[in-house]
Amino acid sequence: LTIRKINSLIDVPFLEGLEQRLEDTKSENDSNETRVISWQEKIFSQYEKHYYRIKENCRTDHQKKYYQMLKSEQHTPRLLFTYVDEDNYYPADQDNHSQVQLSLLTPAKRQSMHLMADLGREVLLFTLTWNPEEGILTVFPDFNHITINPFYQEMRETNLHMYHYALEKSFSADPVIPRSAKQITLRGSSSALKSSTNAANKERFAIPKQLHRNLLFLLEIVAASNFKYDGIHIRYRIDLPDDIKIANKDSDLIGSTHASKQLDGKWHFAHCHELLLNLPDMGEGLSLCLNVYFEAISIDSWCRERYLGHSHLSIPMRSQINETSINFVQLTNLGVMADELEVYLVGNHRRVDLVSFYS
């Protein structure tokens, strides 16, 4: 874990009667720090050091343990410190939506560790959570590098201080594996334990075949606008390339939204479709596309279908999150009067070979 002070935009002015400026009282080493931190390693902040050194403040067993640690060992707090699982620390800053989602999704039996910085006030840099059931360590935000893609933190006091910080993986010959507090370590043969763990993981995760990968396709049809008639629904068909297989045989390649009434100038659907696909690993630079064909249909009071147009969307089969609007094309007769008459008498739903039309 590394933190580095970049600069101060406004220098603290020289005050008469002082031998040096306040900014110069801190050396460069006090603004830069790098630590190799082990899992659940306790590093005290300046506040914690002063608090736990007073015996009267330490009433619980946890506090008494910290009192003995500070009494028997030398601790020199600087910028970086940690909150371990026993500290029961909960971040007060819950403005980050991704961090809130992470805390809601992680199970109750998880272990956590928070990497902090003392920058005039305590600042949360990274949160690490360990799920003992799945054997998964989650880091938020992700690992990075101090010289390539550091994270940025501003501190606004009498002047503006700017910091870069980063968390890198550190490998050792004898790594510390996170364990739950009540876990018992067994010595001897562990083949039965490993086989049962592997079997449990296979049930939770479907591993693709060699030289293949799985792709989860999620489609949401949100809303429509600028159509002439009410009671609209969208029908769609998904066309897969030849080498693509559906992992779940019960999945559908065709679907339809519900019929929607106009509200505030739009027809709202919020219709979702999900497909788990198995595709060959094409390597870098090669990508297949998934084609989706749409039809807009309106149902009149006599339950006849009015044809409002069709459209097409080609989606590259790679990891992405994309939101787009598509325009519909409507096939018409020779004149407006003929179209109106056809709609009124028999409806005008046309069967169009969309694959041939858009190819």
UniProtKB/TrEMBL annotation:
GO terms for cellular component: MKS complex. Pfam families: B9-C2. GO terms for biological process: cilium assembly. It is found in: Cytoplasm, Cytoskeleton, Cilium basal body. PANTHER family: B9 DOMAIN-CONTAINING, TECTONIC-LIKE COMPLEX MEMBER MKS1. This is Uncharacterized protein. Keywords: Cell projection, Cilium biogenesis/degradation, Cytoplasm, Cytoskeleton.
